[in-house]
Amino acid sequence: MSGPLLVPDAGLSRALVRTVPDAVTQRLSDLGNVPVALPVLLLAVLYAARRGNRRGAAAAALAMALVPALVVPLKEWTGRPGPLEPWASGYYPSGHTATAYVAYAGAALLVRPYARGRWPLPLAAALTALTAAGLILRGYHWPLDVLASLLMCTPLLLAVRSAAGPGRARPGPAASESVGQPPK
């Protein structure tokens, strides 16, 4: 493999890998595992659907379903080796980063209209960043693997944001309205 970004990517990776204890970076990278991230999104999908945002819930579920459809062919096509495993291939792009990003940001977009305060999106960004940092610092992925996943999944999340609607809860019928009467 060659390209103008690969040399700085490898240099940055060499400077960062194993600068934090493996026990810490392993736990951070595990935030991108399907059994960890997917339940977070599933709970948010169920919550949003129950609150009447079925369109947003469906969009978030579809976005997650598309992650492997985007990531796996690119991994096979590029066959990029890992930072610590040059004999292995399939590291570009990072599936764990893509999973974390879509799961946590998708969940945040679904619960944001009902949350008190603005915490869902910063929390999703922090969880995704911690996952990415863990993957790079542990040596599981090159920095460009992680960046590619973020860039690749951003359009999916923009579609979820569009389908989920505005960033505020939809008002329900006013308590003073009579049953069967059209809203004023």
Average pLDDT taken over every residue: 90
Query: What's the helix-strand series?
Result: HHHHHHH
The number of strands is 0
Helix content: 55-70%
Query: Total helix count?
Result: 7
Structural class: mainly alpha
Low-confidence parts? 171-184
Largest sheet: none
Q: What distance separates the N and C termini?
A: 65 Å
Q: Radius of gyration from the CA trace?
A: 20 Å
> What's the shape?
elongated
TL;DR of this structure?
The protein has 184 residues and is mostly helical. It has seven helices and no strands.
Characteristics of this structure?
184 residues
What does this structure look like?
With 184 residues, the chain is an all-alpha fold. The protein has seven helices and no strands. α3 packs antiparallel against α4. It starts with 5 loop residues before the first helix and ends in a 20-residue tail after the last helix.
